[in-house]
User: Which sequence fits this backbone?
């Protein structure tokens, strides 16, 4: 491997790590990475979030990994926390759903209803 290739690899790794560090990030994506989540495809979903955020140059998002969230039957599970939206847990999040969450939930502030696993009661969320 050449020095230039090593530098490019380091830069790519640094960009991936920057996604996982807090700071002035107003949006959190929390991916359940327990053994049940990993077996169900959580790593692929996490990579899809990173790729989609990078491709759209969205910088105010931090991605965090946690252990089992206790929803093994709905793995991979992902929680989204952001201003102006209730905290939501999405279930059965594959890479396609991860990209949909970035587009709909994060950019358009619309819930991805088919994958909402848990959310606040109706008196908190106003339906249209």
Assistant:
């Amino acid at each position: 491997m050449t020095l230039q290739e090593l530098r490019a690899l380091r830069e790519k790794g640094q960009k991936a790590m920057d996604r996982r560090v807090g700071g002035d990030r107003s949006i959190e994506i929390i991916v359940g990475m327990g053994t049940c989540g990993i077996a169900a495809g959580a790593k692929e979903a996490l990579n899809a979030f990173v790729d989609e955020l990078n491709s759209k140059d969205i910088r105010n998002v931090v991605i965090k990994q946690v252990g089992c969230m206790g929803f093994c039957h709905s793995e991979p599970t992902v929680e989204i926390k952001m201003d102006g939206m209730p905290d939501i847990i999405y279930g059965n999040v594959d890479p396609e759903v991860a990209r949909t969450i970035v587009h709909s939930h994060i950019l358009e502030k619309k819930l991805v209803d088919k994958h909402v696993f848990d959310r606040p009661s109706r008196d908190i969320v106003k339906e249209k």
Remarks:
- Residues 24-118 form a domain with the Glutaredoxin fold (CATH 3.40.30.10).
